[in-house]
Amino acid sequence: MQRIINLLAGLSLSLISFGSYAAYNAIDLSIGDSVGFAYNRDMDQRRIGLSAFGLWNFTNDNRFAAPAIRYNLIPINDKAFLDNVFVSLAGYYVRMSDEKFDNSTVTAIGFGGGGRIKILDEYSFLKKPLFLNAAFNYAPPGTTYRDGTDLIGWFARLEYPIFDRSLVFLGFRQFLTDLQHDDGYKKENAKIDQTPFIGIHFVF
Fold it and tell me: What secondary structure letter does DSSP report for 62?
């Protein structure tokens, strides 16, 4: 099943090379107890999109990477980086370096979705629109491998426009996994990452 994850990652990198078909490119940078980086690219803002997310937790040295394919269900306007609803298929690689997790490695294929909706418009007291952006992903036991038996992750954040096509945001994220090693070691709800964060979403 590792081959499937490698194939998913390879497909994402291959599709990224088709630059002329992209509706937009976007980069996320965020920081809390961990530093997070995300890259998003829509091949067609009404259909297929690609993304990749990674983080490095400062507290326990956990590292996480997740390339994904995304299908946009509802682009509400012509600006693809704004209101939308999507479903996704992602590959996960997690390295938990902290000794209390017995240096665990987890690979998985996860299913999920999310979206960005406007909760205040430009006529509010903020003078600009305010967005809520959230996503949820789950890898069940049947698609989680190595030292993990499942994996769950979610985030929610409030976003506020600055400059021309950028958003600053404030939110919270959590990634958990159940560990079970061949030697009998078990740990439920092991924290890969759990932190409030701030950051910027920059579109180019």
Answer: -
71-110 pLDDT per residue, tens = 888 765 555 456 688 899 999 999 998 767 778 899 999 9
Residue 192 host element (H or E): strand 186-203
> CA 76, CA 38: separation in Å to the nearest integer?
22
Could you give the CA distance from residue 115 to residue 154 in angstroms, rounded to a whole number?
12
Q: pLDDT tens digits, residue range 144-190? A: 999 999 999 999 999 999 877 789 999 999 999 999 887 777 889 99
Task: Name 91's Cβ contacts closer than 8 Å, sequence gap at least 6.
Answer: 4, 5, 8, 9, 66, 67, 68, 107, 108, 109, 110
CB atoms near residue 190 (< 10 Å): 24
Q: What three-state secondary structure class fits 123?
A: coil
What one-character-per-residue DSSP string does 17-59 give? T-GGG-SEEEEEEEESSEEEEEEEEESSTTSEEEEEEEEEETT
